[in-house]
TrEMBL record:
Gene Ontology BP terms: translation
Lineage: Archaea, Nitrososphaerota, Marine Group I
One Gene Ontology MF term: structural constituent of ribosome
Family membership: Belongs to the universal ribosomal protein uL29 family.
Organism of origin: Marine Group I thaumarchaeote
Domain of life according to the entry: Archaea
InterPro entries: Ribosomal_uL29, Ribosomal_uL29_sf
Listed name of the protein: Large ribosomal subunit protein uL29
Keywords annotated in UniProt: Ribonucleoprotein, Ribosomal protein
GO cellular component: ribonucleoprotein complex; ribosome
UniProt keyword annotation of Oxidoreductase present: no
Length: 67
């Protein structure tokens, strides 16, 4: 999964944000499990972008709730 741009996140509605958040968290969980087992090789660079995407989405969700 590539880095989500803020422009794309701002255009999403709340339901889409929650769906994408659920998907990214599931991917991150799988990557973390592989990392702990020691079988993660080529995808080790995907952990940090996933965490940052989660943070961006949660920030946008909180902005929408405050409005």
């Amino acid at each position: 999964m590539v880095r989500l741009r803020n422009k794309v996140i701002i255009e999403m509605n709340e339901k889409d944000l929650y769906d994408r958040l659920k998907q990214i968290r599931a991917d991150l969980f799988k990557l973390n499990v592989e990392s702990k087992k020691g079988t993660l090789r080529k995808e080790s660079g995907k952990l940090k972008p996933h965490r940052k995407n989660i943070a961006r989405i949660l920030t946008r969700i909180n902005e929408l709730k405050k409005k």
